[in-house]
Amino acid sequence: MSDYKHPHQDAEFVLNELVGFDDLCAANGFDDINFELASAILTEAGKLGSEVLAPLNVIGDNQGVKLTERGVEETAGFKEAYQQFAEGGWSSLIADEEYEGQGLPNVLCTAVNEIWQSANMAFALCPLLTQGAVEAIAHHGSEELKQTYLPKMVSGEWTGTMNLTEPDAGTDLAAIKTRAIPNGDHYLITGQKIFITWGDHQMTDNTIHLVLARLPDAPAGVKGISLFVVPKFLLDAEGNPGVRNDVKCVSVEHKLGIHASPTCVMSYGDKEGAIGYLVGEANKGLAYMFTMMNCARQGVGLQGVAIAERSYQQALDYAKERLQGTNKDGSRFAIIKFPDVRRMLMQMKSATEAMRALAFVGAAEVDRAGRAQDEADQRRHQARLELLTPIVKGWITELSQEITYLGTQVNGGMGFIEETGSAQHYRDARILTIYEGTTGIQALDLVGRKTLLNKGEALAELLAEIEETVVALSKHEGFAEQGAALREALEAGNNARNWLLENAAQDPAAAGAVSVHFMMLFGYLCGGWLMGQSALRAQTLLDAGEGDPEYLKAKLVTAQFFSEHLLPRTKASLETILKGSASIMALSEDQF
Amino acid sequence: MKVLVAVKRVIDYNVKVRVKPDNSDVDLANVKMALNPFCEIAVEEAVRLKESGAASEVVVVSIGPKACQEQIRTALALGADRGIQIETEELPESLNVAKLLAKVVEEEQPGLVILGKQSIDADNNQTGQMLGALLNRPQGTFASEVKIDGDSVNVTREVDGGLQTLNLKLPAIVTTDLRLNEPRYAKLPDIMKAKRKPLDVKTPADLGVELKNHTRLLKVSAPAERQAGIRVASVDELIDKLKNEAKVL
Amino acid sequence: MAILIIAEHDNSTLKSATLNTVTAACQMGDELHLLVAGEGCAAVAEAAASVAGVSKVLLADNAAYGRQLAENLSLLIAELGKDYSHVVAPATTTGKNVMPRVAALLDVGQISDIIAVEAADTFQRPIYAGNAIATVQSLDSIKVITVRGTAFDAAASTGSSASVDSVSPAHDAGTSAFVSEEMAKSDRPELTAASVVVSGGRGLGNGENFALLESLADKLGGAVGASRAAVDAGFVPNDMQVGQTGKIVAPDIYFAVGISGAIQHLAGMKDSKVIVAINKDEEAPIFQVADYSLVADLFEAVPELESKL
Predict the structure, then answer these.
(1) Key word Disulfide bond present in the record (chain A) (predicted)?
(2) Residue C97 is inside which H or E element, if any?
(3) Which of A84, B177, C70, C302 is 20 to 30 A away from residue C63, measured at CA?
(4) Given a cut of 90, is residue C36 above it in pLDDT?
(5) Which domains occur in chain C, in start order?
(6) CA dihedral for C87, C88, C94, C100, sign (positive or negative)
């Protein structure tokens, strides 16, 4: 088992120095909110995360969940922790004040969510999904639906789920078969949904399912899918949970990781049909889902940051304690003294910092795009948000695999043994490149909708901004090498973009074949960009005698490390991209 | 009844202190600071008294530079009603703190003053008792239970060898021990509300207190490190070593 | 000027912490007076009179002092203390309770929990839970001091035959009253004074298993302690806790059984002469401070140790 401590210094550095938190609040109408308050919120969340949620992480992994006659029984201790979480008001960070939320900026919620996700990812999925359901109802539901369901979901009194996937409809949601038959003021829903995270549990007295289904007369394909609210318990006249609805969990999956998060097979309408209420207009369900996609996908990217941080902390503790070298005088020393262990720890530390920087900067674009007063500003931020989202999700979660792998590696033989906790982080991380759109889907999104569709314009703007950091680094004597390295990476990015724009039309397989390399290239480039900015900011603070010098000097080193060890990966990616689809597509299917 | 709680900003419990290379003091530059754990317990106790109806208002006071407003805000987020900061450049010695607090007590007239039994930086364990003497009020130090009973309070104290219960006439002073309660986690809405709760700033001059040094810090050094000894393979070897090498058996 | 030492006692016996305090006071000056304030405590005064180095015993025998109430006792000590260069007490819960009141009444500072005397006005004391040692000089004419007993040897309890003078003032502030007490009953020595301490941690698994440690302690004439983890888990009461927030001990042998060795625990026992750690987890941090480390199952090792001693 390993402890968790929130890396508050790094979180606060990113918020202050890279996001510009106070400016963001002032410019976007978050009155009364400033960095001081953010810091207080992070401190208190950090306590709850470390002291209440983190100790349950390993217990959840060991015990998992059980399906009994009552439904899904969550891991012992989770209910109490959830109640503490909800009573603390932590489910209400982002929601509008109108529905008892706190109306805090998305970027601050992101920083707080990192704590929950690091402390206990399986647990934190429950409020994360609830948050998604709240947003769907808040943005698209009728006033009546909002008044009926939102306050109790925002307060955490009820949880929410998202029911999209079916056995035959995963990535291809057009294949959804669940049916919704109009019946007076409601609909009767029949069908089966799979992979429903926290689809059932006993932590709260109601669960509100958001379900994609087809109306009888709906057009075929993606344009015929509608979104419904289906409560586990129907509400009585006072709005309290009453009669059980015709929906239940019929099975829970046995999984590689996140054992404490019940992944449910949900069956709707085994008897008379589950009563559901239409959200917004008919046949627009999938479009509604897409409006939430940026947040949902960035949320998973953040999980990558969180699990990497947790794995790093565990590996670091182990490396400092594990005596496995002998000095000349016979005394023993810890493995952190070995250069190769250092390499692994530096890779973990440096990459996690870069990932956190990108996750927070991406999350801030949600605030800026959603709140910008000026239309041009709004468009610009929306484009940046759309562009960064697949990189945040795809690159960060892919890199989190490597980091948790290294975490286990630092532990040596003990890393393969469950009791160190390292193996759990490695297993838990594995889902991240899969759910909420696989890495392949993210990469396709980046090359397709986010690049080819706008002729590479959004990317060009990002590249121009990175150029500014290259210039700033190059001007600074101490950062000339980092500047040069970032320039090479930037050129790789430019070349990749140009190649894609030139080749996508002629070779229909080109975009898909290079997409993951393309996405990874831009991930490392963004990481190098933000770490370069971090180095510049850290130096400025050091020169001014502000901030904790130990932390800032370490930041200079992690930025240098990133530049030397991770940024060069952009060049390898480019080389591969330039080879196109030829060898990928050449074999016939029989030859595999 | 009004309850006054005195709180102190100290180095975070989890931070390992480093002694400055010149041995002038410990290095507190940019380390994470927090509410002294015993003070947090004091705030919690006061808030519980208010929640039970025994107290009507909880006022929290802290002495130090502006940064200590953070800890006042923390206390406000935990449920205190308003704050008072007494602005000083450095953290004054216990007797000075007690004198400043005595003036605040004269102004506020609380029925109960609750303080932590000690701060985890200086480890003095003095302020509450000194305040009691200056005000000529009774004290229940190292409290593990506080029960208001009409115009008196029963305080159960953690003393060497067990527990002792005293009956104190109100107004009185209580200092907290670890087991008095388990402080709650601050709730998000309360953290937000704490920003808007009143916080007065005063100076020692406002209170008519002149700060005076009673001690001079000559040196701060790191304690001698204890070296790891040897592994013994069996109980027999252990007994042999204790008898013949350490000669303590 | 002489030094006034406040005796720690329970009205019938002089507590050993007083003897360590006498040793500390010896290093501050030559003329040592010992105040025995209590009720029906003449026997204590008699014992005090024979403590080596003590030239005079002051006996304040009055119902107001019977329970060592700080409100009353501080008035007495402050009145007597005016004529002394130092007023010194053991840093027991009684000393910690009353002495700051005395200092405030005398309008002087207090130097708490000293572990060394460098000069009559200069002392060492631990700060930050023992993670740093401060050397502090008093600027006051009367030095009010509490002494960490484990840092000083005990003075001989015989060898002197000081006079016993009764002092008359009876101060009763009338603001506090004793209600009840609940003392742990044990024939074992007090934790802070024992020469052998056997402490258990979370590794013991439950409170019943502390019987293993008790029987080892009894064999060695020692006391039984516990880590905060064991206390928090409800295995044993809090007055057994050794550590930063509990008792500070420094016995000749300290057995840490099933204790991982959190830094807060180490703060309470690292001045022990010999530390023995028994733990089945060979990575346990306690092994980094132990003189003798035994990686073993405590449920086998402790009974074996006891049977072979």
Answers:
(1) no
(2) helix C93-106
(3) B177
(4) yes
(5) 3-166 (3.40.50.620), 191-308 (3.40.50.1220)
(6) positive
Of C177, C225, C172, C170, the closest CA to residue C197 belongs to C225
For range A416-421, the mean pLDDT = 91
Q: Are C198 and C224 in contact (CB under 8 A)?
A: yes
| CB-CB neighbors (< 8 A) of B34 in chain A | 43
**B34-55 tens-digit pLDDT:** 999 999 999 999 999 999 999 9
CB contact at 8 A, B217 and A117: no
The structure tokens 């301490």 sit at: C197
Cβ-defined contact of C128 to B123 (cutoff 8 Å): yes
CA distance A324 to chain C (A): 12
Distance of CA C219 to the CA centre of its chain: 23
Out of A95-109, A128-142, A346-360, C79-93, pick the least confident. A95-109
The yes-or-no verdict on residue C190 having pLDDT over 90 is no
Q: Name the pLDDT band for A96 (thresholds 50, 70, 90).
A: confident
**A357, A530 Cβ separation under 8 angstroms:** yes
Q: Are A37 and B170 in contact (CB under 8 A)?
A: no
A395 neighbors A522 (Cβ within 8 angstroms): yes
**Matching CATH number, A292-437, of 3.40.50.2300, 2.130.10.10, 1.10.730.10, 1.20.140.10:** 1.20.140.10
- The annotation status of C241 as a binding-site residue, yes or no, is yes
C147 touching chain B per CB within 8 A: no
Q: Write down the mean pLDDT value for chain C.
A: 93
For residue C98, the Cα-to-chain-centroid distance in whole angstroms is 15
What is the torsional sign of CA B152, B158, B160, B162? Answer: positive
- Decide if the complex's ipTM is over 0.85: yes
- Mapped onto helix, strand or coil, the DSSP state of residue A533 is helix
Question: Which residues on neighbouring strands pair with residue B60, listed in sequence order?
Answer: B5, B83
Cα angle A63, C259, B241; round to 5: 140
What are all long-range contacts of A66-70, with beta carbons under 8 Å and residues at least 24 apart? A66/A252, A67/A249, A67/A251, A67/A252, A70/A202
Q: ∠ CA(A287), CA(A290), CA(A293), 5° rounding?
A: 165
Test C238 with B141 for CB contact under 8 angstroms: no
Domain A8-154, CATH:
1.10.540.10
Q: Which 3 state secondary structure label does DSSP give C42? A: helix
What local confidence, expressed as pLDDT, does residue C248 receive? 87
C224 assigned binding-site residue: no
Q: What is the DSSP letter of B29?
A: T
User: Average of pLDDT values for C78-106?
Assistant: 97
Task: Please list the active-site residues of A.
Answer: 436
Measure the CA–CA gap between C300 and C285, rounded to whole angstroms: 21
Q: Which residue in this structure is represented by tokens 């208002």?
A: B57
B188, A44: Cβ pair inside 8 Å?
Answer: yes
A324: confidence class by pLDDT, cuts 50, 70, 90: confident
Distance CA B92, CA B101 (A): 12
Contact (CB<8Å) B188/A37: no
Pairing, β A186-197 against β A274-278:
antiparallel
**Which secondary-structure segment (H or E) carries A295?**
helix A293-321
Give the closest-approach CA distance of A318 to chain C in angstroms.
10
- pTM comes to 0.87
Task: Delineate the domains of chain B, giving CATH numbers in brackets.
Answer: 2-245 (3.40.50.620)
Tell me the pLDDT tens digit for each residue of B82-94. 999 999 988 899 9
What is the per-residue pLDDT for C187?
78
Looking at chain A, the number of H-run helices and the number of E-run strands are 20, 14
Instruction: Look up residue A499 and give its two tokens.
Output: 């190649």
The alpha carbon of residue C126 is apart from the nearest alpha carbon of chain A, in Å, by 26
More confident residue, A48 or C186: A48
Type of residue found at A436: E
